[in-house]
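Here is an idea for our session: we take a single protein and study its fold together. Which protein we use is up to you, so please pick one and set it down. Once you have written the record down, we can walk along the chain together:
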Amino acid sequence: MPLFSQSNYPRSKYVDLIDLTKGHSESQFSVLQLNCQGLCSSFMEITSMCHQLQPNIIGLCETFLMGQTDSLLDIPGYTSKFLHRKEARRGGLAIYARNEYAVHINNQLSRNVEGVFESLFLELYGPSKKKILIGEIYRSPSGSISAFMDTKI
């Protein structure tokens, strides 16, 4: 059986804003992914959304952070990990995981290839002790598609 056959993985359900407001059961693993267009300017709205929806994971791209404000952007009940651009002003990634998970950055998969893409991958260990690998990848619209496709993660 192929590794990526549908029978190997539970189905993911993508939902719209109306479905989000209905909530989810505690037994469901939920991921909220947003292009926040600047985490500092959207932080209060994202925090409010997290308290209402309580996703297990929050993935954010285009955080526009340079590292100096990370400790000011904690969401109660979540552990945060960031990947910042070193040269460009914009971009950047963040992943927040509920505190019930032990969180470790996977340095082999997390990278910042300036002007091409950024990736942040975390290994999560929950109550079941199973490892969950979760990642956020962002390709800059001005970046080279061929350079992105040629880069091995």
User: Anything to note?
Assistant: The two ends are 25 Å apart (CA to CA).
